[in-house]
């Protein structure tokens, strides 16, 4: 039996790029397109050639520079202008010139938009769709019509929106994507409208009962927080083409998150949407796209977020220990993600045992040790430590409880940090004075390592930086591996802020050796003491993992 076609259509490079703050270069688009292809989408909407110079350039270069295995490129544009002819419209010609095999036309299907935004008659609105589709199909292009404001238009004047859809299909469009342009629909509304439309067009219900190659599609925005649900409702009601963006990028609150849609369809509804292993690679691909867009991935994003399969509550861990599926909706590897245990004051012994396993320690059957570590974590968290963001500090506690001691790489004799703020030398603005003062931070560290007493003074643009420099220089003499360590992130949080300048401070430090990154935590009465503790943990953990023996 032939399988009914199902289209996955990506618009990250066009509608996704309409997100506030996103500005994709041609090189960015050329780098993202192969990732989308690797995911396995069938269509990549590259942009609007003729309207946006970068997009014209993208199509010119994409034809020569990228090879797509699964996807075809779609050029996006609008129907001809009112009162013109499609073949004369420079914007329509630019779509042809892009040489994209698919052209997607945004077409007004809400009569209010035709009359008020296009300032033309309802009949001319329909003619604009018909002429433009006919012209492009005549030129050998596959045409998708994005029926803009379809759902709002349908609720206002169903007859007109239906005429727009019929005109598009009669003129040769392969797909009409029903757009919730303003993103305000609810799933039941979408389901009802798609069902009613299909019935009125004589399309039997069921995905594989569509006449010929004509498909209805769904293009959802997330303004009501229902974009994923609306897309699934549309598919349930008979749409067989879904549009969306990776990571849900898009104007305002974004477009539908395409990965979540295809994962739901494939893993929950048994609709195979992507060829090959695309879904199992989707976490890596979503994060790789985020690197290029330079927008930090959202940890709580369904399926691909870093927290999507992270478990914090002790009771969850105790059940997961028996069977992970008791607390997860899918096997995370199906989307290339991982289950993680978080250690915090909500941990129980099972959390510690599973976290230990994740870190490479078999703690099964060590009840006493698990109780000791659990109690220590809870006590430390009560003082302000947080281990769910500082795995490395937790591992040092675990090692200490396992062996009865911490590795003795060095012994600190004393340290101090000074910030000289007197007399900003520029004698100028407060900011310039502050800059001068920061340049004067100085720290001295005295420690014992490798049988020596080492005294080093470091300078930095602030006291923590100066301490970091001094500690690093002192330790490098005995442990040259430390040269590779680099502090990449530093976060400060004032706890019990109502104490004012007397409050407790927590510092989280992220360190890398170029290959791995680890996080440590320190708590103290001030930022310098808290940072010092986090820095010490960072160096000890780094040395342990570099396989270095204490000297
Ligand atoms: C729902 C969506 O997100 S669709 C995608 C929207 N994306 C973009 O707008 C990004 C790219 N846009 C652009 O670069 C510019 O807006 C352009 C080049 C398309 C048009 O720019 P301008 O010629 O300066 O026109 P402007 O943006 O002010 O107005 C849009 C024109 O298109 C017309 N228009 C709007 N939608 C359609 C449509 N579906 N079919 C035909 N014409 C349309 C409007 O009536 C208006 O015509 P007018 O100039 O005769 O008044
Ligand atoms: C076409 C489109 O992006 C929309 O209607 O939202």
From TrEMBL:
Its EC number is 2.3.3.21. It is an enzyme of class 2 (transferase). Pathway: Amino-acid biosynthesis; L-isoleucine biosynthesis; 2-oxobutanoate from pyruvate: step 1/3. It comes from the Bacteria. Keywords: Amino-acid biosynthesis, Branched-chain amino acid biosynthesis, Isoleucine biosynthesis, Transferase. InterPro entries: 2-isopropylmalate_synth_dimer (IPR013709), AIPM/Hcit_synth_CS (IPR002034), Aldolase_TIM (IPR013785), Citramal_synthase (IPR005675), LeuA/HCS_post-cat (IPR054691), LeuA_allosteric_dom_sf (IPR036230), PYR_CT (IPR000891). It catalyses: pyruvate + acetyl-CoA + H2O = (3R)-citramalate + CoA + H(+). Gene3D superfamilies: 1.10.238.260, 3.30.160.270, Aldolase class I. The keyword Zinc does not apply. The keyword Transport does not apply. Residues 6-280 form the Pyruvate carboxyltransferase domain. Belongs to the alpha-IPM synthase/homocitrate synthase family. PANTHER family: (R)-CITRAMALATE SYNTHASE, ALPHA-IPM SYNTHASE/HOMOCITRATE SYNTHASE. This is Citramalate synthase. It comes from Isoptericola halotolerans.
